[in-house]
TrEMBL record:
InterPro entries associated with the record: Cell_wall_metabolism_enzyme, Dup_hybrid_motif, LysM, LysM_dom_sf, M23ase_b-sheet_dom
One Gene Ontology term, aspect cellular component: cell division site
The protein's name: Peptidase
GO molecular function (one): metalloendopeptidase activity
Region: Disordered, residue numbers: 1-47, 117-141
Span of domain LysM: 50-96
Pfam families: LysM, Peptidase_M23
PANTHER family: MUREIN HYDROLASE ACTIVATOR NLPD, PEPTIDASE-RELATED
CDD domains for the chain: LysM, M23_peptidase
Family affiliation: Belongs to the E.coli NlpD/Haemophilus LppB family.
């Protein structure tokens, strides 16, 4: 669950949401809690399906990832209320689902009908016990995806809904990171705090996968990739050790990747 997003200072979505501050010489501005929400753009859509109220610490990229959308789409859908994406505000209401008739900028890529051999088939060094058999939830509309392991190391941190939105896989600097399924690169960069050098793939309208803390990114935004293709090199950017943080997001929401990955 949530996309070049290359991290340059002029990137339209690097800045987090802003509280309404004060200018030099002006009277103190009201705190966030004191701002009348009716004065913020999009207030009339608050609470409606397909809309999101901006929280402290949000960025357009983070909001897009959390809702399974391309960050460019989110900007485009909200151009009339957010003329400057660098200045979204706490309490502002943004559209996070396509308006009627809108076409996504990242086309849906169908998953391959059968898994292909990949690095996932190598034994996991140091693995104490095999992973549990997958109990993959069923997607609607023929959007099942047969995922493979994105790296060959053992799991060093499992999924925790509150603390860890995916799994962490051990490895050495430079180890290959591969696409878990066919997809489209909707994010490649370092603009999401806590993820380091990050790649996000969109597999269809239901599933996204995220690959974090890489030392090198080998694909670019809008590029199509195939299952098992090397997309990055493992690293420790924005992490305490070399590892791959891997997430599966179903309709924008994080879910336990081990439920989708084959036993090994």
């Amino acid at each position: 669950m949530l996309a070049a997003i290359a991290g340059c200072s002029s990137s339209p979505t690097r800045a987090p949401v802003e509280d309404r501050g004060q200018t030099a010489g002006a009277a103190p501005a009201p705190t966030v809690n004191q701002v009348d929400p009716r004065s913020l753009p999009g207030y009339e859509n608050m609470g409606k399906p397909g809309y999101y109220t901006v929280q402290r610490g949000d960025t357009v990229r983070k909001i897009a990832l959390d809702h399974g959308q391309n960050w460019r789409d989110v900007i485009r859908w909200n151009a009339h209320v957010v003329p400057d994406p660098n200045a979204i505000e706490v309490g502002q209401v943004l559209r996070v689902s396509p308006p009627p008739g809108a076409a996504p900028s990242a086309p849906v890529v169908a998953a391959a009908p059968a898994p292909a051999p990949s690095v996932s088939e190598l034994p996991a060094a140091g693995s104490a016990s095999p992973a549990p058999a997958p109990t993959q939830p069923r997607a609607t509309g023929g959007e099942e995806v047969a995922f493979i392991w994105p790296a060959s190391g053992s799991i060093i941190a499992g999924y925790d809904e509150a603390k860890n939105k995916g799994i962490d896989i051990a490895g050495k600097a430079g180890d290959p990171v591969v696409a878990a399924a066919d997809g489209k690169v909707v994010y490649a960069g370092s603009g999401l705090r806590g993820y380091g050098q990050l790649i996000i793939l969109k597999h269809n309208n239901t599933y996204l996968t995220a690959y974090a803390h890489n030392r090198a990114l080998l694909v670019k935004e809008d590029q199509s990739v195939t299952k098992g293709q090397k997309i990055a090199e493992m690293g420790n950017t924005d992490a305490d050790r070399v590892k791959l943080h891997f997430e599966v997001r179903r309709q924008g929401k994080p879910t336990d990747p081990s439920r989708y990955l084959p036993a090994r």
